[in-house]
Amino acid sequence: MRNYLPEGRTINSSRNKYYLQNADNLELAMRQGLTLEGHAVMCTQEHDIIVDLPFGKGIIPRSEGAIGIEEGVTRDIALLSRVNKTVCFKIMSIGEESGGIVCRLSRRLAQQECIDEYISKLSRGDVIPAKVTHLEPFGCFADIGCGIVSLIPIDAVSVSRISHPNDRFFNGQDIFAVVKDISQGRITLSHKELLGTWEQNAEMFSVGETVCGTVRSIEPYGIFIELTPNLAGLAEPQENVHIGQSASVFIKALIPSKMKVKLIIVDVFDRPDLPGSINYFIDHGHIESWVYSTENSGKHIYTYFT
Questions:
Q1: What is the pLDDT of residue 1?
Q2: Are residues 178 and 205 in the same domain?
Q3: Nearest to residue 151, comparing CAs of 183, 113, 115, 194?
Q4: Which of 6, 74, 80, 185 could cross-link with 131 by S-S, CB 3.0 to 4.6 Å?
Q5: What span, in angstroms and rounded, lies between the C-alpha atoms of 228 and 152?
Q6: C-alpha span between 105 and 30 (Å, rounded)
Q7: How far is CA 201 from CA 206, 227, 229, 293, 300, in A?
Q8: Average pLDDT for residues 91-96, to the nearest whole number?
Q9: What is the mean pLDDT of residues 31-48?
Q10: Beta strand extents in 98-243 (DSSP E only)
Q11: CA angle, 162 then 283 then 275, to 5°
């Protein structure tokens, strides 16, 4: 089976560069029915997408810009938003116009093949690569192949609660996700199951260490500080602490039976930078179920995919 990846994953590959280097190679790709990638440099008044090619110009007509455009199911903003980004395509024709080589391309056909040969065959529990496309208060939209987008709801991003998906992700970020649900051809994703159990995360720390964290919640009884996306601890109340700040914290206790981490705040400060890199405990294959909780804890946090 061919690899169907989020847009942008193959544009710099030797294979993609080979077929785009001249018209003869592109014609070979057309005969083989290959999907390639290029850089969209413009969307015309007619909403055709112009793709930069080393030897000429590529045109993705509006009707070929995405699945559902012609039927009115997909809005034209899906085409406008591709400008200055990578687009996948199949080659429909290669010819000369006004003394230059012009190639007619189709992103829609690439997407349809991706659905038929890959996305339609996914099952709940499959772990797949994805790319963040945009963030909303309720969740993260991610490209799971050829520009086909699925949703990670905010409560499925991590065990540690966040106020907005941009606390965890940024646009264009390459991530992994797991297929949570499939309903009427629409796929919903999850993310937290790939970030480890309580024990796996707690094993990264030891009592007596002073480590970095992020303030996620301030309650009357204490301050919750995230150590990893799937592990947070509680520190005593303190003034002049705000949600989103970075913190240096002393680890006072790790209690597996209660899934608790007791912390002491050493310092807090503002750090207006992008979310950090994500440490995945699972980044491929298939999972039937996931149990976050420790064996003897009173809480039972789990996901069953089948």
A1: 42
A2: no
A3: 183
A4: 6
A5: 19
A6: 10
A7: 11, 9, 9, 11, 17
A8: 95
A9: 98
A10: 100-106, 127-136, 139-145, 148-153, 174-183, 186-190, 210-219, 222-228, 231-235
A11: 35
Q: Phi first, then psi: what are they for 266, rounded to 5°? A: -95, -40
Per-residue pLDDT of 109-164, as tens digits, reads 999 999 999 999 999 999 999 999 999 999 999 999 999 999 999 999 999 999 99
Structural domain including 206 reads 198-269
Q: Is residue 280 in some structural domain?
A: no
264 and 208 both lie in a single domain: yes
**Total domains in the fold of the chain:** 3
Name the band, by pLDDT with cuts 50, 70 and 90, for residue 275: confident
Check whether residue 95 and residue 33 sit in a common domain. Answer: yes
Instruction: Tell me if 6 is assigned to some domain.
Output: no
DSSP 192-231: GGGS--HHHHHTT--TT-EEEEEEEEEETTEEEEEEETTE
Tokens matching residue 158 = 């991590």
Q: How many other β-carbons are positioned within 10 Å of the β-carbon of residue 26?
A: 24
Q: Look at 29-38, 136-145, 250-259, 293-302 and tell me which has the smallest mean pLDDT.
A: 293-302
Return the minimum-mean-pLDDT range out of 112-116, 259-263, 280-284, 299-303.
Answer: 299-303
Q: Can you read off the two tokens belonging to residue 108?
A: 């829609």
Token digits for 58? 């590529």
pTM comes to 0.92
Judge whether 290 lies within some domain: no
> Which one-letter DSSP state was computed for residue 274?
P
Render 34-68 in DSSP notation, one character per residue. Answer: --EEEEEEEE-TT-PEEEEETTEEEEE-GGGSSTT
Q: Residue 255: is its pLDDT beyond 60?
A: yes
Quote the CA–CA distance of 290 and 72 in Å, as a whole number: 39
CATH number at residue 59: 2.40.50.140
Q: Cα separation of 107 and 88, whole Å?
A: 6
The secondary element (H helix, E strand) that includes residue 158 is none
